[in-house]
Structure formats: C-alpha cells, structure tokens
C-alpha cells in the first residue's frame, strides 16, 4: 500500500521538486495537492504531510497535522531552534513525528557539518548567504541551522568573537554568529562560512546551481524517514551518517 502524501505548497519552487520526486518514488503517492492558501482540513486521511509552504503558514500546517495524528516533513524555511521549541510539546503530545529539513542538498548538509567540525578551532566565524531576490525570508534556514551547529560545536569555547554587533551592517546574530543575507537576481542559493584565526582564514562554500538535481537525493531519503519518525528531528545530518567527528 502506498503512503498517501498531502503536499502543502505544491505549486512553489520546492513543492514542484518534491512532487516530481514523489511521483517517481515507489511506495509514495501525492493524494492531496494544497497551496499555502488551501483549507488544511483536506489533509485528513493522509499518512504524511509534506510542508513546502511559507514561514507564516508552516506553523499552522504542523498544528493541523498534530490534531489528526499525521507525521510531517517540513522543508519550509524560517524554523530556528527557538521556533521549533514552540511546537515540540504539541508534537510530543500528539505522538507524531515532525522532521525539519533546512536544506535537502547533501552538499549543503556536509558543508554545514564541516563548519561545525572546524568551529572550535576558530574564534571569528561569519556566514554570508545569497539567494534569489524572490526569497521571502532572511536569513535562510540553512544559515540559521549552520549557525546553531557552529554554536553547539563551540560549547566549550563559548560564543564566537563578533565585534561591533550594535552596528546593523554587521548582520543578524544567530547563536552569536553574524549572518549576512544577499537577495539578488542571477543566483539560486550560495553560502559561505568564513572562519578566521591568527594569520589564516578558512572558507567553506556551498553553491546550488541546479535545485532539482541537488535536492532530489535528500528528499528521497527524508520521505520514508519522516513517515516513520517520532518526535522532533532537525536536519538531514540526523538521517544519514556523514562520518564526521572532531575526535
């Protein structure tokens, strides 16, 4: 029997890619196609909700799914650790699984993991991320997740060294890491994590040039995992073993 998927935000850029993957994936079918303005009651009877909507709608998608005991795979951006904490009790009380994937790209996940691996060795760390001008949120979910991973990796060292944070041009701080967001035509998605120390600098760059090709492998991995998950899971790195360790 196929897993019946309700796809919210199906007509958007990410939703279109996710639908194409589901259509080709054995054991899954898109049973309900919803936009970000659709009545969420139509998810009733589905086995999994995949959320590719907007930051404003995403919270409502999770609550609607929790009310009906349906697991959720969230690809929508804008979910910081603080915001995820707001739905954790709802997820646990409903006994469902909600899987947040800030970026379905394997390269992006590896890049963020490498930044976290290097973070304890550099006191100055900043992130510059660029997306197309139509992206409605900033900083990107990927940048937020990277900053949170960097901060967690530096638990023993403490916050990064970020001078002059009172100046608006110094970027938005997430977990002490300054993030600078560019929104411009001619770019898909790019992130640079710049780590600086005495006499040297390390830049970890990930550049998405073909979203459908880049995201499809991660989507294929995330769908069956999200269908069977329990509780809150954040990041593709918790679905696959990257084999990275600071020890």
What does this protein look like?
34% of the residues lie in helices and 26% in strands. α1 links the parallel β1 and β2 (28-34). The protein is α/β, with parallel strands linked by helices. α2 (55-67) runs parallel beside α3. The radius of gyration is 18 Å and the shape is globular. The strands form 2 sheets. It has a 6-stranded parallel β-sheet with strand order 2-1-3-4-5-11, with helices on both faces. It has 6 helices and 11 strands.
User: Helix- and strand-based class?
Assistant: alpha/beta
The coarse silhouette is globular
Q: Runs with pLDDT <50, length 5+?
A: none
Distance between the termini: 44 Å
Major β-sheet profile: 6 strands, parallel
Order of helices and strands: EHEEHEHEHEHEEEEHE
Per DSSP, what share of the residues sits in E-state strands of 2 or more residues?
25-35%
* Approximate helicity band: 25-40%
Over the alpha carbons, how many angstroms does the gyration radius reach? 18 Å
Mean pLDDT: 95
Quick tags:
single chain; 247 residues; 5-stranded mixed beta sheet; 11 strands; globular
Task: Give the structure's gist in a few sentences.
34% of the residues lie in helices and 26% in strands. It has helices at residues 13-24, 55-67, 81-94, 106-118, 141-153, 211-228, and strands spanning 3-8, 28-34, 48-51, 71-74, 97-100, 124-131, 172-174, 177-183, 189-197, 200-208, 231-234.
